[in-house]
């Protein structure tokens, strides 16, 4: 059975403060991701790749279609899941490495990395102990671990974000350009981490603009452009 099954999803944004202009983004997109594979979303800038990840993570509402995943032994449809169920899905089933780290004032880098495990119920000290080797692997200097990452460089913040995403064992992992601001050495660490997740049977769906990283990690490419709708239409008056 697929770990993730996207069935005919569609989305348009309605700009309520701009006269109701509609921005159609994705229409009738279908694909699935098996356990242990990394599927990469492809398509030009603005085609809707990040929007697809956000629909799967429940950040954006799904207008049409369904998104099926295995959650706590049952099959659920994310498109119709209520916010309480989605919170549980994010805790247990779907992990997400976003493009940018959401820094929390006064929370240290290592606590931020450990936090997804703590929210699953893992003891804080155990979670911190699991965070350390990841930070080491991602070449985050130990002197930074106890500091809040607000002042870190873009690449350092991204590596904290990657560690946060990879520390858990969520069966589905969404990756929104995890290697965008990394040097070659750390890009290779991300490629290795993705390889280890595959071996552990994790289903991954990602966006990678760097063709070398994409070629190294992708088992399959899904082109979202065939499903993208690019014209902008003014809202039609309702008679
Ligand atoms: N919250 C939002 N409100 C309005 N429009 C949005 C919103 N999020 C995305 N869009 C629009 O949807 C379209 C697709 O954006 P998206 O970020 O999904 O594309 P992408 O393929 O990931 O692009 P890139 O490769 O440049 O990151 C863009 O035209 C964008 O302006």
From TrEMBL:
Q: Which residues form a coiled coil?
A: none
Short name of any one Pfam family annotated for the protein = ABC_tran
Q: Which Gene3D superfamilies match?
A: P-loop containing nucleotide triphosphate hydrolases
One annotated GO molecular function is:
lyase activity
- ATP-binding among keywords: yes
rRNA processing recorded as keyword? no
User: What are the residue boundaries of the ABC transporter domain, all occurrences included?
Assistant: 4-239
Among InterPro entries, the record links this protein to:
AAA+_ATPase (IPR003593), ABC_transporter-like_ATP-bd (IPR003439), ABC_transporter-like_CS (IPR017871), CP_lyase_PhnL (IPR012701), P-loop_NTPase (IPR027417)
Top-rank taxon: Bacteria
Report keywords, A-Z.
ATP-binding, Lyase, Nucleotide-binding
Concerning its family, UniProt says:
Belongs to the ABC transporter superfamily.
Per its UniProt record, what NCBIfam families does this chain match?
A: CP_lyasePhnL
Q: Which protein are we looking at?
A: Phosphonate C-P lyase system protein PhnL
């Amino acid at each position: 059975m697929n770990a993730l099954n996207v069935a005919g999803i569609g989305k348009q944004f309605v700009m309520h403060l701009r006269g109701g202009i509609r921005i159609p983004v994705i229409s009738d997109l279908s694909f699935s991701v098996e356990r242990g594979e990394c599927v990469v979303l492809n398509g030009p800038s603005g085609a809707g790749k990040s929007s697809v990840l956000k629909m799967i993570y429940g950040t954006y509402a799904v207008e049409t279609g369904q998104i099926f995943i295995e959650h706590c032994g049952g099959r659920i449809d994310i498109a119709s899941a209520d916010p309480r169920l989605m919170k549980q899905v994010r805790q247990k089933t779907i992990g997400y490495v976003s493009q940018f780290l959401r820094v929390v004032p006064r929370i240290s880098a290592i606590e931020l990395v450990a936090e997804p495990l703590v929210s699953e119920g893992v003891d804080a000290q155990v979670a911190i102990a699991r965070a350390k080797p990841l930070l080491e692997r991602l070449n985050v200097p130990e002197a930074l671990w106890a500091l809040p990452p607000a002042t870190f460089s873009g690449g350092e913040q991204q590596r904290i974000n990657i560690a946060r995403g990879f520390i858990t064992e969520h069966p589905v992992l969404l990756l929104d350009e995890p290697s965008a601001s990394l040097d070659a050495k750390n890009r290779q660490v991300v490629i290795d981490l993705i390889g280890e997740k595959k071996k552990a049977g994790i289903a991954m769906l990602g966006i990678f603009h760097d063709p070398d990283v994409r070629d190294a990690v992708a088992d399959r490419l899904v082109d979202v452009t065939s499903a993208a709708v690019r014209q902008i239409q003014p809202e039609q008056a309702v008679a």
